[in-house]
Amino acid sequence: MHKDVTIYDLARELNLSPATISRGLKKSDAINKDTVSRILSKAEEMGYRHNNFASNLRNKRTQTIGIIVPRLNSYFMTSVLAGIEDVASKERYNIIISQSLEKKELEKSNVNTMFNKRVDGLLISLAYDTTDISHLQPFFDKHIPVVFFDRTFQTEESTCVVINNRDAAYKAVTHLIQQGCKRIMHLGGSLLRDTYSDRLKGYRQALEDNNIYYDDTLVQISKLGEQDGIDAANYILSLNKSERPDAVFCANDMSAVYCMSHLKEQGIKIPDDIAFAGFNNDAVSRVIEPKLTTIDYPGYNIGEAAAAGLLNILKGDVTTMKTTRLVLQSTLLIRDSSKRRL
Questions:
Q1: CA–CA separation, 92 vs 86, rounded Å?
Q2: How many CB atoms lie within 10 A of CB 4?
Q3: What confidence tens digit (pLDDT) does each residue in 32-53 have?
Q4: Architecture of domain 62-162+299-327
Q5: Measured between alpha carbons, how far is residue 144 from residues 281, 310, 322 in Å?
Q6: Is the CATH code 3.40.50.2300 the one for domain 165-297?
Q7: pLDDT per residue over 226-280, tens digit each?
């Protein structure tokens, strides 16, 4: 087997000191340009490869950040990852991505793996059933920065990047009320997650501010998947016509689209019989007919902000280190699924 070429091999070939070779490979201004050129040329000729691992060990940095997401098969999460990767690559950081599949135990295992791989920092969006963050304590003990995004856990030891979910939900439900809807159903996610509990709070506040009775039989909590949307539609169909909702506000677009589609197959007219509003502005919201009214949740911007915040902490930015919550803007996008003929 061929041994890797080292700076000592280059030094011997060029009759230079290893220190000069090291500076030349870094294109240091302290070295004559002709000497730098000779060193780089000889390194290419001999197949020299920079040993990032050894260099990072010396610097006590791996130039790697870990990312843990609930699921990868999500338009929102892929948008977040795109934002993270753009920021990380510009700063010459590598990323390691894992998914918890909405399971706390797998999330714990992923956190342990990231810790053992010595990532410089961690970006994490929590699983549905995570009730505490004790599994992150090794990161906090070692002062390795942790930034939560989307599904967060408020702590003085980390930063959270979110939108105002309560306000966004309030806007969506208020819009449905302005369309004449008075019996509005809510398909929500796990209330262990602030993301979904805040959306429920916004829903309730909009009803209260418009003197509409809160009916807990019209609130369904699920994982907001495809089948959950279909199940919600079947529940609506099982109700007497006088008891059916005249609008549905879903905490994501996927459940909204599948609920809408199933209702349409059963002859329900949207939005005339039941108006719909979703959340996230996933691609599917723009291809369903009628197009889905939704909250534009800027995944790419969330990813950018989370990655930038983490890297700023790694650079020692005191202002970022003291920021425990960063709130980005969201927008209500009104489309045909909620435009009723008043």
A1: 10
A2: 10
A3: 888 999 999 988 888 887 665 5
A4: 3-Layer(aba) Sandwich (3.40)
A5: 33, 10, 15
A6: yes
A7: 999 999 999 999 999 999 999 999 999 999 999 999 999 999 999 999 999 999 9
